[in-house]
Structure formats: C-alpha cells, structure tokens
Amino acid sequence: MPLTHRLLAFSVALMWGLNFIAINASLAQFPPFMLVALRFAIVAVPTLLLVPRPQVPARWLFGYGLGFGTLQFLFLYWGMAAGFPTGLASLVLQSSAPFTVLLGATVFRERVSARQLAGLGVATSGLAVVGWQQAQAAAFAPFLLVLAAGFGWAIGNVSNARAMSGATQRPNPLHVTLWMSVVPPVPMALLSLAVEGPDAIARSFTPGPELLPALAGLAYTVLIGTLAGSGIWTWLMARHPAGMVAPFSMLVPVVGLSASAVLLGERLGIPQLVGAALVIIGVLWGSRTRRRPVPPATGPAISEPAPSTAAAR
Fold first, then answer.
1. Which of 85, 142, 261, 265 has the smallest number of CB atoms closer than 10 Å to its CB?
2. What pTM value is reported for the model?
3. Residue 296 lies in a domain
4. Is residue 303 one of the residues assigned to a domain?
5. Range of the domain at 244
6. Considering the domain boundaries, does residue 131 fall inside one?
7. In this protein, which residues make up the domain named EamA (predicted)?
8. Residue 29 falls within a domain, yes or no?
C-alpha cells in the first residue's frame, strides 16, 4: 500500500476516533434516541432523493440498517448517556469483531480458523477485564449497553456481507452504506417520542450554551465521521485487500482513548489499560490472514502472468 494510502487510512482512524468526542458533545444537549434519529435522518433524506437504490436483497439491506444503524447506535448512545466513559466506549465497541465471528459461525455455519478462535479468546478476556473494572465502579449496566452496541454492529456486518454477495451485480459499497441510513430514523424517532417524550425533545432544541457544541458535534458525526470517513474507507477497501486496510481500524480506540484523556480528562487505571491492550491484540491477531507459502521452483524459470487488478492496487 503506498504511503499516501496509509496516511488516508490513518486519517479515517483519526476521524472515527474523534467521532466519540463529537457524540459526547451532542449527548450533552440531545436525548440519545432522538440523537440517533437526527443523525440518520440527515443522511437518509438526500439519499432517498439523490442516490439510486443499490440492487441488493432487501432483507439484507434492512438487516444492515437494523444492526449497524439502529441497534448499534441506540445502545452506544444510550450507554454513553448513562455515563459510560467516552474513550472506553470506542474500545468496547470493538467487541463487534468477535461477535461477527461468532454470528458467522453459529448462524451461517462459516468456518472459524484456529487463529480467529485464539484472537476471539484474547479479545474476550480483555473485555472481561474492562467489564470487571466497570462493575467495581458501579457502571456495569452502561458497559452492557455498549457491549450490546457491538453486537448490533456485528449483525450489521454479517447482513452487509450477504447483501454484497447476494447482489446480481457488484453494487457501490458507499451507496449500500447510504441506503442503510434510511432504516433507523423512523423507528428511532418513534422510540424517542414514546420513551423520552415530546417535552424532552422540544427542550433539546431550546437555545443555550450547549446547543452550538451539540450541533457542531452532530455535523461532525454526519459529515466527517459518516460521509468522509466511510467514503475514504470504501475507496481504500476497493483498491487493496481487506487484510491490509482493516487493521487500521484498531487505531480508532487508541485515538478515542487518547482524545478522551486530553479533551475530557478521562483517566484509565492499569487494569483497564491491560484490558484495552488485550482487546486490540486479540482483534488484530484474529483478523490477520495467513499467507500461503510459495513452493520452491523445480524447473526453469517461467514468466508469470501479471497479478490481478485487486492484488496490484
């Protein structure tokens, strides 16, 4: 991968890591369920008007929107609004990786390698350490909410994979992501009205000292975190093997934890740092692809064909 492309991948990790700071600013003003509805409505309206619907199976597109869009952010925003630390939220959300492996193996009978099982075990032990620390701090319920957000992301992952593989012709991945955003706004708005109430929603739009930072955070989440970040990531994934691009996502919790320490004053104890390291190592190890050894040449040298486009990019 060229240096410029590596820098682009790093920039996406930076955007997504700082996204948690933006979410924290928005949650200071808006109720969590209404904030989810707002976030996706801003994307869904122009998508419905301007972006052609990708030709993928509707049930998997709906599953992608339900898991990745609705369940992930419902539980993430709920957990953060209930007091779960912003930096740790960026870490615990990485539970989506082992959850995706488990869903693929149990529901869709996908083969799981020994490397994936080992990585799953290490990452799970790290999450257990973080969860134990949160239980000691009387914050176990918000931890479970963010863990549920990781499970929602995993549902979105397996649904997205099947949407792409079940398409009659290869769709634009960014269009699939944009159309996923059409699913969450209505159910989240109805849930907000039922649980948070119209009075709380109306108060959240009342001018005050926290409204402008909250709107700026929402704008960052939509324009930078979702559109710019996802757009660059999709562009990179189309030009390089997934195994070269995906590990950069593990910089997201590093950025999230660091930014939360600097900007929000959050501090982690030694057990939490150990748990964070185990999660990152486990996910990275489990996501590595094993290279097949190249057999030694036994005859005269033969000119090999040029590598395929996907491998050459």
1. 265
2. 0.83
3. no
4. no
5. 3-288
6. yes
7. 7-130, 144-285
8. yes
